[in-house]
Design goal:
The protein is mainly beta and 205 residues long. It folds into two domains: 2-69, Roll (SH3 type barrels); 77-204, Fumarylacetoacetate hydrolase, domain 2 (Alpha-Beta Complex). The protein is 7% helix and 35% strand. The protein has helices spanning 85-90, 151-159; strands spanning 2-8, 11-19, 37-43, 55-62, 67-69, 77-81, 100-104, 116-119, 133-134, 137-138, 169-171, 186-191, 195-204. The strands form three sheets. The chain has a five-stranded antiparallel sheet with strand order 4-3-2-1-5, with no helix packed on it. Strand 1 and strand 2 form a beta hairpin. The chain is globular, with a radius of gyration of 19 Å. 15% of the residues are buried.
Length: 205
């Protein structure tokens, strides 16, 4: 099941992306043909507590007729720095013995297909989190088995100093291969077993 957050006619809701079977009913796992995909709207929050906290409304929309938004609205985005040894060394340092935590604002969250706004007056670079290709060229390629601190350890470490709420995001680190971005660059993030998210970089004041 693939949860989606979407907008239609300025209304924002959660839904489940489904494939339409030949008889018009909602199928199981989504396929690759966007024309055969639809969003089944949900009432309530998918991370709600209790069996009655979320249910289908009965409304279904073809995927091309809605705008997909960022799947979550985190209260905070927790990032882990230098959690890949090769990345730490390319930055001129050895990997730290303990996780290095830093925060990103929730407004940094970007939805599928939305532009990645590059603040040209503030910085010439953007911390390239989980991006694997730029303009089709592979820039970063790593496996989570290379993490010095795995997800379980990071959750334990982070929750010792702050409370995580449903929808919060924990970034586990950047692999080696960081570099500058420019206006017009096309970014693509691929996670095995999940899919690919593509965005274009645009300059902003």
């Amino acid at each position: 099941m693939r949860i989606a957050r979407f907008s239609r006619d300025d209304d924002v809701a959660y839904g489940v992306v489904q494939e339409v079977s030949p008889d018009g009913a909602g199928g199981a796992a989504p396929g690759q043909d966007a024309e055969r995909l639809q969003v089944a709207e949900l009432h309530g929050h998918p991370f709600g507590v209790g069996s009655d906290s979320v249910r289908f409304t009965g409304a279904r929309y073809p995927l091309p007729e809605v705008r997909l938004l960022a799947p979550v609205l985190p209260t905070k985005v927790i990032a882990i720095g230098k959690n890949y040894a090769d990345h730490a060394r390319e930055m001129g340092a050895e990997p730290p013995s303990e996780p290095v935590i830093f925060l990103k604002p929730s407004t940094a969250v970007t939805g599928p297909g939305d532009p990645v706004a590059r603040p040209v007056k503030l910085s010439e670079r953007v911390d390239l989190e989980l991006t694997t290709t730029v303009n089709g060229e592979v820039k970063q390629q790593a496996r989570t088995s290379q993490l010095r601190h795995d997800v379980t350890e990071l959750i334990c470490y982070v929750t010792a100093v702050m409370t995580l709420l449903p929808g919060d995001v924990l970034l586990t680190g950047t692999p080696a291969g960081v570099g500058p971005l420019a206006h017009g660059d096309n970014l693509a993030v691929t996670i095995q077993g999940i899919g690919t998210l593509s965005n274009r970089v645009v300059d902003r004041d």
